[in-house]
Amino acid sequence: MTRGKQKIEAQRKNAEKNQKSKGSQLEARAVALKVTCPICKVQLANQNQLGDHYGSKHPKEKPPSNSE
């Protein structure tokens, strides 16, 4: 076990280490998801995922053009 100054230093380092992770995962997710499916309102990261989404979830529909 540590005593005195070592204990205080270890507690300070652990507090700094645990404090670095600020922000939530929901905020990061909102920034990353930029494309939305107009039919079911699912948010996707890019146009390629939107094309795959249309192929699996909306096979009878055509995916929107890349300009949207």
UniProtKB/TrEMBL annotation:
GO terms for molecular function: zinc ion binding. Residues 35-63 form the C2H2-type domain. The keyword Zinc applies. Keywords: Cytoplasm, Metal-binding, Nucleus, Zinc, Zinc-finger. Residues 1-26 are annotated as: Disordered. It is found in: Cytoplasm; Nucleus. Residues 1-19 have a biased composition (Basic and acidic residues). GO terms for cellular component: cytoplasm; nucleus. PANTHER family: GEO09665P1-RELATED (PTHR21213), ZINC FINGER PROTEIN 706 (PTHR21213:SF0). This is C2H2-type domain-containing protein. It comes from Mikania micrantha (bitter vine).
